[in-house]
Specification:
Largest sheet: 7 strands, mixed
Low-confidence stretches: none
Strand content: 15-25%
Number of helices: 16
Helix content: 25-40%
Shape: globular
Strand order of the largest sheet: 14-15-16-13-12-18-19
Number of strands: 22
Length: 504
């Protein structure tokens, strides 16, 4: 796979052992500290590249300002047509983009292909919105015509994570440019490559040069420089709660509003009247797909007491059937933990959980070789909601199963969390399903399913899972300024507080 990756990269830039930024339609290398990237499958160093510097940020700032004006000067129909072409180019380059995502994000190739197609769909979906961002006329109780317009903010800074780099790239870029904005995108320093390629394809599709700038570098250097030095009108951050809080503080100091999409500890609730076979499959998919490296993972499995032991045992035993290994293998279902820091965190949380009294059901797996790579076997802990494993985000293939007595108890446990990103309920009782959905505090909630999201539906969290929404029509509102215009229509205005002037 490495040879194919190098072949693809060489078609964009020459140096396959380094990574540039893409600013004002050109590749440019930074001069900062070396960023080192390791291969999660082997644990070996893969490459390094220089962090973006102040000059790159300054160029991106100036370029985005000019490109934003050029983009907004186009008709809405033309902007939509260009966005459709971006979607088409992503589809044309499906295999290459998926391979790059697999190699750089350590994501199983079959999952990478699905996510690339979803990115194409994101641009196509928002392309259809560009000429439908209608204003409103408000029937005010005066002689005025009052109408509301939605206008672009200007330049938006978007900071995306390592767990789903190309997906979150499209998820953020598409609504931002559909609403007329320019973007400075700062992906994780560990996974900038697929975002760089999306920006190049957008450039080829006809967006003004500088409309989409991708900065390869650290958040605490390049990201903070962009916040403090560029003319940013809004920040969108996807990542950990700890980093999100630091971003919010820096943004507040500059008077910049934010959308924060942070962590989760989502409750996946199974009642004893559910289709238990379907619920067990759903529970596995909710936490083990993507090696649990998803903010919406069903990392708390709430199971009614009457079925608790047998349901937990069934989920734990079935998890051994997953194919775990090299992400480039088409048969692989679960790949490694993305990086060493996260790998150490997951293993630490497993150790702490058992020290607190949680019971780890057999988590050995024939596909996990602990001698190399950052692999963690799918693991089920039987525990309580007051344990660290149930309150803190693990971000790995680890689920804590918690027993509950009845409906009220399940809702109370589900809401006993600082997070509120997602949740689910499995039951055949329709009334109960809706009652639970109404009372669990979460931005996304599923009934008898898990983890389905779509660009057309709003996504975001409650509590420490963040604020604002990053998809659906709501995202376009997040990326827009609202202007109220008042036009006097009366021949003689009712209120005249001025003195008559002799203009003869």
């Amino acid at each position: 796979m490495k040879a194919d990756y190098q072949r693809i990269i060489q078609s964009y830039w020459d140096n396959t052992t380094s990574i540039p930024s893409f600013v004002n339609g050109q590749f440019v290398y930074g001069t900062g500290e070396e960023v080192v990237i390791h291969d999660a499958h082997t644990g070996l160093e893969r490459l390094s590249y220089p962090d973006a510097d102040e000059a790159i940020i300054a160029t991106a700032d100036a370029a985005s300002a000019e490109a934003g004006k050029a983009w907004w000067s186009l008709t809405a129909q033309v902007r939509g047509q260009i966005m459709q072409r971006i979607g088409a180019k992503i589809r044309e380059n499906l295999e290459d983009l998926a391979l790059v995502e697999c190699y750089s994000a350590n994501k199983p190739i079959r999952d990478a292909k699905v996510e690339v197609l979803k990115v194409a769909e994101m641009f196509e979906y928002y392309a259809g919105w560009t000429d439908k961002l209608h204003g409103e006329v408000i029937p005010v109780p005066t002689s005025h015509l009052n109408y509301v317009k939605y206008e672009p903010l200007g330049t938006v800074l978007q900071i995306t994570p390592w767990n789903a780099p190309i997906f979150t790239c499209g998820w953020q870029l598409a609504p931002a440019i559909a609403a007329g904005n320019a973007v400075i995108l700062k992906p994780s320093e560990l996974t900038p490559v697929s975002s760089l390629l999306v920006a190049v394809l957008a450039d080829e599709a006809g967006v003004p040069k500088g409309l989409i700038n991708v900065i390869a570098g650290y958040g605490h250097t390049a990201g903070q420089m962009a916040i403090k030095q560029a003319k940013i009108r809004k920040i969108v951050f996807v990542g950990s709660p700890a980093t999100g809080k630091r971003i919010a503080v820096s943004a507040a100091e500059q008077g910049i509003p934010c959308v924060l999409e942070l962590g989760g500890k989502s409750a996946n609730i199974v009642f004893d009247d559910a289709d238990l076979e379907l619920a067990a499959k759903g529970a596995q998919a909710a936490i083990f797909s993507g090696a649990g490296q998803s903010c919406v993972s069903g990392s708390r499995l709430l199971v009614q007491e009457s079925i608790y032991d047998r349901f937990c045992e069934a989920v734990a035993q079935a998890s051994k059937q997953f194919i775990i290994g090299d992400p480039s293998d088409a048969q692989t279902q679960i790949g490694p933990i993305h990086n060493l820091k996260q790998y150490q965190h997951v293993n630490h949380m497993l150790t702490v959980a058992q020290q607190e009294g949680a019971v780890l059901l057999e988590n050995g797996h024939p596909g996990v070789d602990k001698s190399e790579g950052y692999y963690v076997a799918p693991s089920l802990l039987k525990g309580a909601n007051n344990m660290a494993c149930a309150q803190e985000e693990i971000f790995g293939p680890v689920v804590v199963a918690i027993p509950f007595k009845d409906e009220d108890d399940a809702i109370a446990i589900a809401n006993d969390s600082k997070f509120g990103l997602a949740g689910a309920v499995w039951t055949k009782d329709v009334g109960r399903a809706h009652r639970v959905a109404d009372q669990v505090k979460a931005g996304t909630f599923w009934i008898n399913s898990y983890k389905t999201i779509h660009v057309s539906s709003p996504f975001g969290g409650y509590g420490e899972s963040g604020y604002g929404r990053s998809s659906g029509l709501e995202a376009l509102r997040e990326y827009s300024e609202v202007k109220s215009v008042w036009v006097e229509t009366a021949r003689t205005p009712a209120a005249n507080f001025g003195y008559s002037a002799n203009l003869e």
